[in-house]
Specification:
Rossmann fold; 7-stranded mixed β-sheet; 14 strands; globular
Length: 366
């Protein structure tokens, strides 16, 4: 059992690493700064242990960090990925890291500040035992593979790919599809289990699949830049070896659902209703007096199965006399514990309700 399995959290892991004679040079680095540097290497090592343990037996491990950009992915020019052999208790393993992405020298994180998570502009490590820096490639993963057709690649690791914002670039058959055609395993990370469900749904819509195996990573790191609580490398998962056929076309209904969800998310973030996102969105219906209620934004609840809409006007919910159509109510995906489809249903309910209220108000004004 390696370090990423026998330690139950980052504090214990760092304590073990500090006690290793080969890592004495990390002794002067404060814990919070080490945590920021370790979060990606530890996630990769843990993914290897849990999903592809045979990779530990290789002499040389070639790993691509795809979609990499300036920030936690590339701190200190990627030297910390050289800790992967130590984390796997495989000190003779050689690791080569390639940082690949169209934003590898910039950031899409609203202007990444290196001071976040205690990441200074210059490394605190004065002598890191000859560790190699990562190589940096300002290319998409597909372009990189085509430029390196003869190179052996053992793993492609997606560090929070943000599929919802970059659908066309990731799910192009010449991008992730090219990775799968080469037979290279694809690892991915999500900020929480909710995002995992969203990303695996998006992958399925565009002809790809997650295997369904996940790990809730005990070494994740809270993302201090996020508007709602989320954790870097919280959920680890993997793609299957399925890729879309040449003539594959996404279902138009799924694309419309995706657009509805995007409009809904934009409205939520614009309103600043982070309490709803964190505590209500996608949660199971509330049961009261033998009825079930699903929460919508703005203190609104929909009764199941009647479709009646109630609004909190102070100390209690009042009947608005608005009724959501039965056809939509019956389509609620109640038979799953959690699924992105629930968020889509809520998004469609919210947009439908907004249109109904606007229509009613326009009638009153005429």
């Amino acid at each position: 059992m390696s370090a990423v399995l026998r330690n139950k959290n980052t504090r214990y892991l760092i304590k073990e690493l500090r006690n290793r004679s080969s890592l004495k040079f990390i002794g002067d680095i404060p814990n919070h700064q080490l945590e920021a540097r370790l979060v990606l290497p530890v996630a990769i090592a843990r993914w290897i242990e849990l999903f592809r343990a045979q990779l530990k037996n290789k002499k040389v491990l070639n790993i691509i960090i795809a979609g990499s950009e300036l920030g936690p992915d590339s701190v200190d020019n990627g030297i910390w990925y050289q800790l992967i052999p130590e984390l796997l208790d495989s000190p003779k393993l050689e690791v080569n890291i390639s940082m690949v992405g169209p934003n590898v020298f910039t950031s899409t994180r609203n202007g990444f500040d290196p001071s976040i998570h205690g990441l200074p502009n210059k490394s605190l490590v004065k002598n890191y035992g000859g560790w190699n820096e990562a190589s940096f490639h300002n290319q998409t993963i597909g372009d990189y593979l085509r430029a390196n057709e003869g190179k052996e690649i053992d793993l492609v690791f997606l560090s929070h790919p943000g599929f919802e914002n970059h659908i066309a670039s990731w799910f192009d058959p010449d991008e992730l599809g090219a990775v799968i055609k080469r037979g290279i395993p694809i690892a991915s990370t999500s900020y929480d289990i909710r995002e995992y469900h969203q990303e695996q749904w998006l992958a399925r819509v565009f002809g790809y699949e997650a295997t369904g195996k996940i790990d809730i990573n005990p070494f994740s790191l809270e993302d201090e830049e996020a508007m709602i609580t989320s954790f870097i490398c919280h959920t680890l998962w993997e793609f299957s070896n399925k890729s879309p056929s040449v003539d594959f076309e996404p279902d138009l209904d799924d694309i419309l659902k995706l657009n509805d969800h995007a409009d809904f998310t934009h409205a939520l973030l614009g309103s600043g209703d982070f309490h709803y996102i964190k505590n209500v969105l996608g949660k199971p219906p509330i049961e009261r007096n033998g009825c079930k209620y699903i929460g919508l934004p703005n203190n609104v609840m929909v009764e199941i199965p009647s479709g009646k809409v109630y609004m909190n006007l102070g100390n209690s919910y009042k009947d608005t006399e608005i009724v959501i159509p039965k056809e939509h109510i019956d389509s609620y995906p109640a038979d799953v514990e959690y699924a992105f489809e629930k968020e889509i249903w809520i998004a469609q309910s919210f947009l439908m309700l907004t249109e109904m209220i606007e229509y009613a108000l326009s009638g009153e004004l005429q």
